[in-house]
Amino acid sequence: MGFISIRENFDTTSPFGKAMIGILSVFAQLERETILERTKIGLKKRAEDGYWRGGGKVPFAYDYDKKTSQLVINEPRKVIFDLMKTLRLQGYSYAELEKITGLDQSWIQGILKSKTNLGKIPYKGELYDGRHKAIITEEEYQELEKIDQKRRKNKNASHYLLSGKIYCGNCGAKYRYQKWGKKVICYCYSQQKSKPKYIKNPHCNNTRYPSEVIENHFLEQLFQMSLKEEEFKNTFPLSEINKEEELTHRLKKIEKRIYNLIHLLSKDFKQLEVQEELKKQYLEKEKIEKELQFTKKAKKETSSNIKNLSRLWEHLELEEKRNIIEELLDKIIVEENTLKIYWNISS
Q: Which phi and psi angles does 137 have, rounded to 5°?
């Protein structure tokens, strides 16, 4: 079957007509790729000049000004952004921020991690100085990154008691946990060929241990140390600051700020800004009150907990055990048939 055009000289039933169609399709493809290449060059040039590239979603706390081709701060949304940033830096989880703001937690994470907030224009893996104002400092951005990394580390290492703390004395690679039938064993990552990025020495043949052997050895040393209260305190980096007094002082300052803000609100002084700030201070007050309550309770129990750690251990949740280990234990080195424990010693 062929195609014959009445107006144009196209006749695909003839060899010449078929050749013409082929030639035209080649030129059409060339034109398409040329336009695409020019578009990419144009977008990169805009990014290099500090302009928002256009298209897609505009960053949460900004609007796009078509006249200047620049991003401008959206003040009402910046208030929400500042609230999320402040609470995240104070230790709130994305799930908690979702409850407070009503925004989806994955969206909140994307908003806070956007490098556009630093006054930068990202394009194809590169960062360029933007013409718009930054709404977060480099220090704050790096601190948010550290919080995310720490939470990811805790999440990834939460399945087993000593995940991430056991190292091979032969090649330096980490030891991994793996189910082996009904048991769980620990062995050097260099012996796990399916994860080449963790391999330090492909010929490492260091000893494999049942996980309970390593864990029981560690717990035995931990409980022996905890019976010697002074040695435990010297090893465990307990804060010398009276946390209860510090929190009480902070709570009084927050209450004074709330009082002043309510006074301003009664005078209708920049009402929206005052309301937002008042909301932030109430959230901070609630957090400090909870922390103070926990600190008072923990203060009464600290001494007995140290002496009775072995008795209390079986009643702790895995996450609580992991938190204690994170503070106390530096690493465990496996050297053939020897396990060496290195503690976090406070200076």
A: -85, 160
User: Cβ distance 157 to 163 under 8 Å?
Assistant: yes
Q: What is the pLDDT of residue 20?
A: 67
Nearest to 77 by CA among 95, 58, 91: 58
Pairing of strands 338-343, 329-335: antiparallel
Cβ-proximal residues to 17 (8 Å cutoff; 6+ apart), any chain: 2, 10, 11
Cα–Cα distance, 130 to 52 (Å, whole number): 8
How far apart are the C-alpha atoms of 228 and 53, rounded to whole Å? 63
Q: Read off the pLDDT band of 241 (50, 70, 90).
A: very low
In angstroms, rounded to a whole number, what is the distance separating the alpha carbons of residues 310 and 221? 11
pTM score above 0.85: no
Is the pLDDT higher at 175 or at 309?
175
Query: What is the rounded distance in angstroms from the CA atom of residue 88 to the CA atom of residue 277?
Result: 16
The beta-carbon contacts of 42-49 under 8 Å, at least 24 apart in sequence, are 43/123, 44/123, 44/124, 46/121, 47/121, 47/122, 47/123, 47/126, 47/128, 48/128, 49/128, 49/131
